[in-house]
Amino acid sequence: MDRKAIAILGGTGDQGLGLALRFAKAGRPVVIGSRKADRAVTAAEKVRETISGADVSGFENAEATQKAPVVIISVPFEHTAGTVKAIRDVLAPPQIVVSMGVPLATAIGDGPMRMIGVWQGSCAELVAGLVPDGVQVVSAFQNVSAHRLQELDEAVECDVIISRPKEARGAVMELCALVPGLRAVNGGPLGNARIVEGMTALLVGLNVRYKVPEGLGLRITGLP
Amino acid sequence: MDRKAIAILGGTGDQGLGLALRFAKAGRPVVIGSRKADRAVTAAEKVRETISGADVSGFENAEATQKAPVVIISVPFEHTAGTVKAIRDVLAPPQIVVSMGVPLATAIGDGPMRMIGVWQGSCAELVAGLVPDGVQVVSAFQNVSAHRLQELDEAVECDVIISRPKEARGAVMELCALVPGLRAVNGGPLGNARIVEGMTALLVGLNVRYKVPEGLGLRITGLP
Known about the structure:
2 copies of one chain form a homodimer. Chain A has 224 residues and is an alpha/beta fold.
């Protein structure tokens, strides 16, 4: 396992691919995971074509999971539980799982400006309930626009509100530092993901009302 | 009723008083309401001492309500339903009620970084369920720091995410324009107050973690 590698499950989707491009551009090895290995391989090729010299590979999710100390779950919310169940046997401490999912109501055929209630409180807490003991789950990246991630020549003007556990937070803050314009903000306990995930639904609505299809972001003001 | 007047129920509290100071400074007549008339009168005097020539008066809540087309509810969450019930008989269209409350867990003796679940979904929706037919409820100002409102020489760097009804939103956007640094953002349907209210709990936590007792704010980035 390459200690610098970052696995992105669902790295074939818009937001996951955006992160893959950014991390690869910053010189980090990226492992793209997908339910189907061939889709992951194709996405990895796409990244290598865009960024010459990029160290990016593609694998089926469980195989990708075994190749990185940090595993980002970037699948549609309705596939989150299934994806985590499919990789839990190969997950082990000190690996860190990053939840970036949001329980948007698209999961039940309603719109992306609304959310569904999750028994555990948030996508991140649902994920935390499924990983093996000792594997830490951090919530991050929900509010970052997929489109702006893929505009590689521009900074992504957005704060990333990270909900910890404390020990794992640093590793994810460091990932934010790889992407120009992203700023890591210490969002407190994992339960706060309930709020941060909701902010994605609010931003989706703002994107529509203000006609900004490339996606808005947010900043906390007054931070020292 | 003075068409320019703004009633602030709970205008004796930090955030309500902050708004009273700002609106008075901008030259608008302000009517402070409280459960006890004498407390409202004292708060009004305080504003007049700070801002010479300010048109500010104090009354018991129901009397204050009758004196303005816009009535801001700025009482602690646990007093919200009681306050609205106490004024509903004197509320009538086209008056607008502004909900700025947040169901923080302080209402049940837990901390201000957490929320309690409200059957209606949010404080704003609870208020909307209690006002007479035709009175419109708008959600706004939750995330604005009381301390920064009271620092009259400085701009309050914060977006105000306003959840409508559409027809009433304009009146509240106009109130934001009275306070330097506040920017009104169209936050969509009233149900989105669930998210915006949650953001207050998140900001309270950030204030503590980042040691910014004067309060942080937030901005949506990328708006046209």
